[in-house]
Amino acid sequence: MTGRLRPLPRSLDPLEDESIHGYLLRLAHQFGAAPLEIAVRTGLVVQGRGRNGIPVRLLHDLDEQQLGAFAHATRLTHDEARGLLTASLGERYGPLNARLLAEFRTPTRMTHNNRWILTKAARYCPRCLSGDGTEIEQRHGGPWRRSWRPPPVFACLRNQRPLLYGCLRCGQDTNIARGGSLISRASEAGLHPARCRATLPGTRAVCGAAWLAVRRTGVPTRPLRSPRC
């Protein structure tokens, strides 16, 4: 698969503790594309199979072929790509460690049968999502962190505040997706990563509310990742 995928013309460095969910949102925003289009372009989803979403199992782990294709397309190292997955949290958090849980050895079982990982709920810290003041985070927002997925984690230690569960405007989970997609409205382009992707009740319209207004200033900018040969 790696040989058939072309690297993206320009990529992004992963942010600290960023999940693959957040990384796809930022890449999509960078290119003005839909997250599903980026998932196809990076080998996470096979085009032409009638999919309208991104499998939730990709949140947890990728097989070696997918990992290699994704790293190649995004110009990341294998370690950088693997660091976007919740599987790597298993070293410290037992319910995500497949070696300790024989019944959850596959990513599909881990994400669908394991109540100790949040796959549909997208909790967040408004301070983290507003970014750190660098140029790249001013454009695309801060990280959707992997460490927000384990249910025992209820607060952001970096900013000393509880994690929020829903959108302050529509009251729904910010990433409610039909059909078990990792990203809600994955076929829709143009939404900023720090905006609510829930569909407003009784309509087909996306909420799109921005929760984040405060920005840090005076932090040196960090450039986009340069293309690698």
Report on the structure:
This protein is mainly α and 229 residues long. It has one domain (10-180). It has helices at 20-31, 35-41, 64-74, 78-82, 107-112, 126-129, 135-140; strands at 155-156, 161-162. Strands 1-2 form a two-stranded antiparallel sheet. β1 and β2 form a beta hairpin. α1 (20-31) crosses α2 (35-41). The longest helix has 12 residues, at 20-31. It starts with 19 loop residues before the first helix and ends in a 67-residue tail after the last strand.
Quick synopsis:
The chain has 229 residues and is mainly α.
Structural class of the helix and strand makeup? mainly alpha
Number of helices: 7
Number of domains: 1
- Which whole number gives the mean pLDDT? 84
Shape: globular
Strand order of the largest sheet: 1-2
- Low-pLDDT parts are 212-229
Q: Provide the succession of SSEs.
A: HHHHHHHEE
- Give the N-terminus to C-terminus distance in angstroms: 18 Å
